[in-house]
Amino acid sequence: MTNNFIEVMEQKSDSELLEIVTKLKDDYQPNAVLAAQKEIERRDLSGEQVEQAELEIEEKEKKNFERENEPLGVGQKILFLIFFWGVIPWVMAGTFKADGYTKKHKDAWRFMKIGIGIFWGIPLLLILITKILSA
Asked: Residue 76: is its pLDDT beyond 80?
């Protein structure tokens, strides 16, 4: 099996390479990190290029943070509350998580649980009230 990390790293942007050798090095195989480091050395980045790459990394982290903490909209909350049953809302909630929308994922499941509670709670409450009133 050939080691093609060098070829892969040649295709990466400066910011991606810097991110791999600094923040993401534990997520990559040691040979991949080494290949990224060698590619950075080969490119002989200037201080300005490094600074620009660091700004791109910060912007990416900011976007990821905003995405993770984006809540469901009012319409989405109502839809998950009403349509808690079935595969489609479950898949949608899973898609939120896969796309990095952590808060939307949690909110979707919370509103589906509330919907289930209302669906079962109201009839049980009505049965209980009729039993109490008929006694």
From this structure: yes
Encode pLDDT of 45-66 as tens digits: 788 888 888 888 899 889 999 9
Same domain, 60 and 83: no
Our count of domains for the chain comes to 2
- Angstrom distance (rounded) from CA 107 to CA 104: 5
Going by C-beta distance under 8 Å and a sequence separation of 6 or more, which residues neighbour residue 75?
Answer: none
Model's pTM, two decimal places?
Answer: 0.63
Domain coverage including residue 55? 5-67
Q: How many residues would you count in the chain? A: 135
Torsion of CA 121, 126, 128, 130, to 10 degrees: 180
Which of 18, 41, 67 represents a domain boundary (last residue)? Answer: 67
What is the amino acid identity at position 18? L
Longest dimension (CA), the chain: 87
Are 63 and 87 found together in one domain? Answer: no
Q: 102: pLDDT confidence band, cut at 50, 70 and 90?
A: very high
At residue 3 the predicted structure's pLDDT band, cuts being 50, 70 and 90, is low
